[in-house]
Specification:
The protein has 29 residues and is mainly alpha-helical. The protein is 93% helix and 0% strand. It is built from one helix and no strands. Keywords: Coiled coil.
Amino acid sequence: TQQQQQQQQQQQQQQQQQQQQQQQQQQQK
């Protein structure tokens, strides 16, 4: 279960990073 939790956290972090990048791109435009 610890492994599962870690994987989930990593996925969430990646998603957040992607969202942030998208926002930054939009702002630049």
